[in-house]
Amino acid sequence: MTDKDSYFVALKLFLKRDGKFLILKDNFGDWDLPGGRIKPQEFETPLADILRRKIREELGEGIAVSLGNMPAVLMRHERVEQTDGNPTVRIFALGYEGIVESGEPKLSQRHTEMLWVDPKTFEPETYFTGGWLQGVRDYMALRS
User: What distance in Å separates the CA atoms of residue 107 and residue 26, rounded to the nearest whole number?
Assistant: First the structure.
């Protein structure tokens, strides 16, 4: 059956504070949302626990976040990997909402920059491409 495709599955977070949400620039120069792929050994792990792991890895231990119960948007993104011969991979992502309850996010070694953006004035096409761009547009359309 060659008509089936393989996708990585990721969890992304629209992390909000003071009416803005957080975007991150990764080490490869691409803008992204906090979160990432589900690991093979996490198949039976609750999705909220996986997203909390990604938050700790990417934003530090000192931030407390409340998470929405359901995804706000669904995203499909294609990207060229920066390892193993640079294959093109496809990612299906669930985009959750979260609110900073306390603490301050800190950049991990995976990211070079963070930016809090106001959805009222943010122009996502300046930062995002592909499925991430469409997902951010979809999220902003839900919240306008």
Answer: 10
Cβ partners under 8 Å of residue 117, min gap 6: 20, 21, 22, 23
Query: Any bridge partners for residue 14, and if so which?
Result: 97
Question: What pLDDT shows up at residue 130?
Answer: 94
* Closest to 98 (Cα-Cα) out of 10, 9, 11, 8: 11
Please state the three-class secondary structure of 94-109 as a single string.
EEEEEEEEECCCCCCC
> What's this model's pTM, rounded to 2 decimal places?
0.92
Looking only at the bridges linking them, the beta strands covering 88-102 and 111-117 are: unpaired
Note the pLDDT tens digit of each residue in 50-63: 999 999 999 999 99
Alpha-carbon distance values, 106 to 67, 85, 95, 118, 120 (Å)? 18, 31, 21, 19, 25
Structural domains of the chain ordered from first start = 8-143 (3.90.79.10)
The single-letter DSSP state of residue 88 is E
User: In this predicted structure, what is the pLDDT of residue 1?
Assistant: 55
